[in-house]
Write a structure and sequence with these properties.
By secondary structure, the chain is of the alpha+beta class. It has a domain of 130 residues: 6 Propeller (Neuraminidase). It contains 3 helices and 11 strands; from the N terminus they run H-H-H-E-E-E-E-E-E-E-E-E-E-E. A 4-stranded antiparallel beta sheet has the order 1-2-3-4, covered by helices on one side. Strands 5-6-7-8 form a 4-stranded antiparallel beta sheet, with no helix packed on it. The longest helix has 21 residues.
Length: 202
Amino acid sequence: MSQRQPPKLRAGMVLSRTLRIRLAMAMQNRTVPNQQPMPLRSLPLLRISLLLALPLLLNGCFGGNLRPLPGLNQRLAQLGASHNPQLSGRWLALIAGRQGRQQVQLLDLERGLPVPLPGLNRADSQPISVAMDQQGERLVVVRQRDDRTELVLHRRSLMASEAIPIEPAGVPRQVSLSADGRLLALEVSRGGLWQLDLLELP
């Protein structure tokens, strides 16, 4: 004699049968009750609407306020070929020069004028990377001098530079300095591998 199946199983069988009906109807491109599929004719219109709205969305994100600064850009162009810009507070540090002779340059953005750096640039050295603190007081420079690459800390108020030892020994390339000028991140090559060192400056 057959036994009646528990209610849970019966409910599960009904649910499975309903799902099979819905899947079969979807495969036949028929409308499932209580659902309104999007007409295929509206899809191209939707894509066109999105494309037309994209410039407005981008303009809203940037606020339409992106504009060049002619005065400062002209001052930068006068420095010659430049690279490695570093912004911090009111200061812009970069490496610039003409005819292969490059130097570290510091620009006061509020006044729009270059700031002298006595004691930093040398005739026998070529800067590679520069970093600066928020006060524009400390500058850290990676530079090529003779046949070696060295890391230098320059204090602008003292008009003096000093070499920073790298331990274990390696070849520095890129530098980054914290806003307070106390923590230095250095990219250095050792044994053919590029590594990152963090140094705490006094």
